[in-house]
Amino acid sequence: QVRLVESGGGSVQVRGSLRLSCAASGYIYSNYVMGWFRQAPGNEREGVASIDRFGTHTYYADSVKGRFTISRDNKKNALYLQMNNLKLEDTAMYYCAASPRDVLNLRTDAYNYWGQGTQVTVSS
To answer: Among 53, 88, 96, 99, fewest CB within 10 Å belongs to which?
Structure first.
């Protein structure tokens, strides 16, 4: 049974930092492209960052480029999102997801497996 569990969310002030983690189990982790998504109240879920199976290539939404860094550790079946210089508009529920398609993308319909999410709240 595939399971993705996010952690590391919390409350932080503007320009602060957080590091999100996602623990994967129940499937061959290194066979999947991984991504981070977020959803704010009243908004659609949007892609934040994606990383290829080997952690070699990454892809970011323009809104987070230069501030967020996605990484993975295939030995630990773990995914990370380092978020720096956080802004008010980064407030959202953050989800990790796994895609069997061997292409970097931020489309929600490309991802088969999803975690339950971890809340990030940025305040002034």
So the answer is: 88
78, exposed or middle or buried, with CB in 10 Å at 0-12, 13-18, 19+?
A: middle
CA 76 → CA 12, 21, 42, 59, distances in Å? 27, 11, 35, 22
β-bridge pairing 68-73 and 78-83? antiparallel
pLDDT beyond 90 at 58: yes
- Rounded to an integer, the average pLDDT of 72-97 is 98
- Residues of the chain above pLDDT 70, percent: 100
Q: Which pLDDT belongs to residue 52? A: 97
* Complete edge-to-edge strand list for the sheet that includes strand 68-73: 3-7, 18-25, 78-83, 68-73
Residue 63: CB atoms within 10 Å: 13
Please give the pLDDT value at position 23: 97
Q: How far is CA 96 from CA 4, 14, 51, 123, in A?
A: 7, 23, 11, 23
Structure tokens at 34: 């991984």
